[in-house]
Design goal:
By secondary structure, the protein is mainly alpha-helical. It is 56% helix and 0% strand. It has helices at 12-28, 32-45, 54-60, 71-77, 89-107, 112-123. It is globular.
Length: 136
């Protein structure tokens, strides 16, 4: 490594936070492929936790049995058929909320962009309103 090469030091919390915030930016700019990929990367980067988070809840929900909860994530990561797909806004929002909720479950914090995205998602009326008062 040369002396003029730029290097950053990071950790899982910082990296996951940066990925989620970047995913939110891409989502707001209708770049759904990037938003899903970054949100899923952040969710998978985070350590397992005993605290509840959306993916854990969905995975264990009786009504979700048999559903492919990672359909769009896997399509974007692997050469799967079909050759093209339509990605609904709701799927991107859920992927983002999955990552944000796991981030909150692990670190008990979140960025203003994360809080705003969660609030927007619930205001759309798809899921019940969460308590957001204790966000830093």
């Amino acid at each position: 490594m040369s002396n003029d090469e730029k290097v950053i030091r990071t950790d899982r919390q910082r990296a996951a936070s940066a990925q989620i915030d970047a995913a939110i930016w891409h989502f707001r700019n209708n770049q759904y492929e990037c938003a899903i990929t970054l949100a899923a990367a952040a969710e998978n980067l985070l350590p397992e936790t005993g605290n509840p988070h959306l993916f854990k809840i969905l995975k264990n929900a009786p009504t979700a049995k048999g559903l492919d909860l990672n359909q769009f994530i896997n399509w974007l990561k692997h050469p799967k058929e079909p050759e093209s797909i339509s990605i609904p806004e709701f799927e991107v929002a859920i992927t983002l909320v999955r990552a944000i909720s796991k981030f909150r479950a692990v670190y008990n914090t979140g960025s203003p962009a994360m809080k705003s995205l969660v609030k927007w998602t619930f205001e759309k009326g798809e899921l019940p309103e969460p308590k957001l008062d204790d966000w830093e």
